[in-house]
TrEMBL record:
Primary gene name: BnaC09g40620D
Catalytic activity field: L-glutamate + H(+) = 4-aminobutanoate + CO2
Family the UniProt entry places it in: Belongs to the group II decarboxylase family.
Protein name, entry field: Glutamate decarboxylase
Residues modified as N6-(pyridoxal phosphate)lysine: 277
A molecular function GO annotation: glutamate decarboxylase activity
Length: 492
């Protein structure tokens, strides 16, 4: 090849990225570097390191949306530089959030007139939404106790032991005792009867979950409401209900419209839902709506002057992106009831394909229910020689991310694997996953039992091997023991 001109040192075109000095040195990890690097190099280096992350589409651990239409991606990118809190400057964005609140409140059957505006707010996710709902209950209860001249320093919330970690956060951050109804083998949600028994005069609310994180099951909110109505009548209290519909709030209205779990029940005063789960928006949006204005104490609301009009706000943080609000509005009007129903029905059908495929192997007990969030939670029928954690580790080699975790008290001896079915998990992928799980089971059958029992400080490895092998197994056993302990928190 003949070069038309000799490359000079300054000719950057010959400095191929992968021969440049930037990829020859290790990257700073603790201190910000003194000098700048070219943007191409920064992009390439970071992009390459990120290749080692899992593939979000194959991350079956999460309810959170991993695919949206390209048109919506475009809207998101064009609003990526808008700060949501600048309501004066971006009045249309504010208007879109208000429309979303109205639509969601109507979806949950809030007692509203056709054109009446709803009480609610967009949040970063259900966690922030739950903090806000919890604060409203706490303040309302305190105000009432103060007015009655009664002590108001020991508030509590009654929940099932299956609550998501954000409730524990709320309890600790805002000093409310969490009274958890224990689970039992074969029953993995809050028992309404036991919950109502635990209610006392200091209970600020009972939190029911529509779509337990652990197995997708809907708690019986109607029974809870009916039992609580009776107890309230007997005691003179007015203990309310909050529904944590983080995952189920966009499923029940479309798949089970007859199911009464929402504002149709008189004691349900607030509901949260994650826009970024089955609301079908990328991570970063949740919603909380209240039944009536009276359910949100006025002193928690800050009033921002917005184009001469009053814009009430109730959030924990100030600045945040606008893209997710806009994306939520896109989904609501683009899909409508018809579209959401189609997506949810499709998810449920793929859940059935996966569940039947797993049942056919004869190796698993299915722990999830037919009615609920479309997911399959399953455990080994025979875990005497291998565990669910080994399946989770081994399926990762095929690219799939399927978490395994133990159930909360008193069902902690049960371990389950959980596959969440999202919109972008097609039937082909469901069938493919069954084939890959079968392969893993055959591989496990060939392997000696590596089951190790970790109890307290003792770790017993049951296989006799050469010293080297034994040592390696002990190390692996410990690694697994440590990571297993974190695994309950690895689901979201
Ligand atoms: C996911 C989830 C949460 C937390 O929601 P984020 O939107 O991730 O903050 C709370 N409760 C339940 C039942 C959930 O499934």
């Amino acid at each position: 090849m003949v070069l038309s001109h000799a490359a000079s040192d300054s000719d950057v075109s010959v400095h191929s990225t992968f021969a440049s000095r930037y990829v020859r040195t290790s990257l700073p990890r603790f201190k910000m570097p003194e000098n700048s690097i070219p943007k191409e190099a920064a992009y390439q280096i970071i992009n390459d390191e990120l290749m080692l992350d899992g593939n979000p589409r194959l991350n079956l651990a999460s309810f959170v949306t991993t695919w949206m239409e390209p048109e919506c991606d475009k809207l998101i990118m064009s609003s990526i530089n808008k700060n949501y809190v600048d309501m004066d400057e971006y009045p249309v964005t504010t208007e879109l959030q208000n429309r979303c609140v109205n639509m969601i409140a109507h979806l949950f059957n809030a007692p509203l007139g056709e054109t009446e505006t709803a009480v609610g707010v967009g949040t970063v996710g259900s966690s922030e939404a739950i903090m806000l709902a919890g604060l409203a209950f706490k303040r309302k209860w305190q105000n009432k106790r103060k007015a009655e001249g009664k002590p108001f320093d020991k508030p509590n919330i009654v929940t099932g032991a299956n609550v998501q970690v954000c409730w524990e956060k709320f309890a600790r951050y805002f000093e409310v005792e969490l009274k958890e109804v224990k689970l039992s083998e074969g029953y993995y949600v809050m028992d309404p009867e036991k919950a109502v028994e635990m209610v006392d005069e200091n209970t600020i609310c009972v939190a029911a979950i529509l779509g337990s994180t652990l197995n997708g099951e809907f708690e019986d909110v109607k029974l809870l409401n009916d039992l609580l109505v009776i107890k309230n009548k007997e005691t003179g209290w007015d203990t309310p209900i909050h529904v944590d519909a983080a995952s189920g709030g966009f499923i029940a209205p479309f798949l089970y419209p007859e199911l009464e779990w929402d504002f149709r029940l008189p004691l349900v005063k607030s509901i949260n839902v994650s826009g970024h789960k089955y609301g079908l928006v990328y991570a970063g949006i949740g919603w909380v709506v209240w039944r009536n204005k009276e359910d949100l104490p006025e002193e928690l609301i800050f009033h921002i002057n917005y184009l001469g009009a009053d814009q009430p706000t109730f959030t924990l943080n100030f600045s945040k992106g606008s893209s997710q609000v806009i994306a939520q509005y896109y989904q609501l009007i683009r899909l409508g009831h018809e579209g959401y129903r189609n997506v949810m029905e499709n998810c449920r059908e793929n859940m059935v394909v996966l569940r039947e495929g797993l049942e056919k192997t004869g190796r698993f007990n299915i722990v999830s229910k037919d009615e609920g969030v479309p997911l399959v939670a399953f455990s080994l029928k025979d875990s005497s020689s291998h565990t669910e954690f080994e399946i989770s580790d081994m399926i990762r080699r095929y690219g799939w991310i399927v978490p395994a975790y133990t159930m909360p008290p008193n069902a902690q001896h049960i371990t389950v694997l959980r596959v969440v079915i999202r919109e972008d998990f097609s039937r082909t992928l469901a069938e493919r996953l069954v084939i890959d799980i079968e392969k893993v089971m055959r591989e496990l059958d060939e392997l000696p039992s590596r089951k190790s029992e970790a109890n307290g400080d003792n770790l017993m490895v049951t296989v006799k091997k050469s010293d080297m092998e034994k040592q390696r197994e002990v190390i692996n056993g410990w690694k697994k023991f440590v990571s297993d302990r974190k695994k309950t928190n690895g689901i979201c």
